[in-house]
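During the reporting period the student researcher (J.K.) took over the structure-prediction task from the postdoctoral fellow and processed the backlog of single-chain submissions. One of the processed entries is reproduced below for the supervisory committee.
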Amino acid sequence: MVKRKKDDDYRAFQAAWTEEFAFVERAGSTEALCAQTCGQELGEVMSLVIRVVNFIVARALNDRQFKALLEEVGNHYPGLLLHSNVGWLSRGKVLSRFAACLSEIRTFLEMKGVKHPEWLLQFHYLVDITGHLNQLNVKMQGIGNTISSLQQAVFAFESKLEVFLRDIETGRLLHFERLQQFRDACIASDSTQHLDLLQLAGFTSNLLQSFKARFGEFRARTDLFKFITHPHECAVDKIDLTCIPGVSIGDFELEVADLKAADMWMSKFKSLNGELESLTRQRAEPAREHKWTEMKNLQPEDQLILKTWNELPVTYHTMQRVSIAVLTMFGSTYACEQSFSHMRNIKTNLRSRLTDGSLNACMKLNLTTYEPDYKAISKTMQHQKSH
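J.K. obtained the following C-alpha cells:
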C-alpha cells in the first residue's frame, strides 16, 4: 500500500512537471521552425529539391547514370543524399550536397528532358540558413547538456539572426557564402540583373520573430536556470518556483539565505564554475573538428553540477530539490531519439515473447552510464567448486 502511494505521488509529480515544461521540447525542433516560418516560397523550393533527389536516387538506372556523370566531370562526391524527416540534420545535409552537385544535376535533368524552374536565389539562401541552423542543432544535441547551456545557445542564435538580417539588408552577404557566390555569378553574366534580396530579408525577419515568440518562456525563467550554477548571485524574489510541484517557497528563501552566509559551501560553487569553464575549453576543440567520440569521454556538465549539490548537507534539501528538477529538464529530442533507436533494436521479430518487464530492464542496461565493478561484486559471491 505504501509503495503504491509512492508510485502515485511520483506519477503525479512527473505529470505536473512534464505539462508545465512541455515548452522545453520546442528547442529540439529549430529546423522544423525554419520550414514553418520562412514562407511558402522556401517550402516549395525544399519540396522541389526532394522531388529531384528522389527522381535521381530512388531509381536505380538514374542513380547509376548520375554517379557516372559525377565521376566523369571529376566531382568528388559519390552521389546525392536522401531526405529523412526523422534525422535532425537531414535537411541541411541534403541541401548542402545538392548545392555542391548543382551544375551536374542541371546537366543530368537536361539529358533526361526534365525541365527545372529558376528558383536558385531562394535555394542558395535556404542552403546557407539551414547550415547555420545545423550548427545550432549540433550545439543542442548530446547527453549532459543543461537547460541553461541550451538557453544560451538559443539566445546567441537570436542575436546571430539579427546580424544575418543586417547582412542581407546591406547586401554584404558575409554570412551567406552560397548566396554571395550565386549573386556574383549572376552579376558577372549580366550586370543589369537585379536580385530581390529584400524578400530574403523578410524570411530572416520572420524567422527571428518566430524564435523570440517560440522561446519567450525561456526568458521568464532565466533566473531559475541560472540558480543551479550561481545560487549566490540570483535574487530570490525573481525566481519563479510555482512551476515546480511540491516546493515550499518559504523554506527555499530561508535556505538560500543560509547558503549565502556559509563561506564553506559557497566556495564549492566557485570551484564548480571553474570546472565548468575548464570543461567548456576542453569541448571546444573536439566540437570544432567534429570529434564526437572524444567529447563523449569528457565528464558531462550536468554530472559536475549534480555532484556539487549532493555534497551539501540535508539542511538544504529544498534547494537540492529545485536544482535536481532543473537538471532533469532537457531541451533536445536527442535522448528520446536515442531511446527509441535502442528499443527498435531490442524489440525485433525474433523476440516475440519479450515482456514489458524484460523490455524495461533491457532499456535500462542500454541507456545507463553506470559501470559496475565486477571484481568487487565477484568477491562477495560464494564460489562454486567443481567436485
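The committee noted the following: Residues 263-288 form the longest helix (26 residues).
J.K. will present the remaining backlog at the next meeting.
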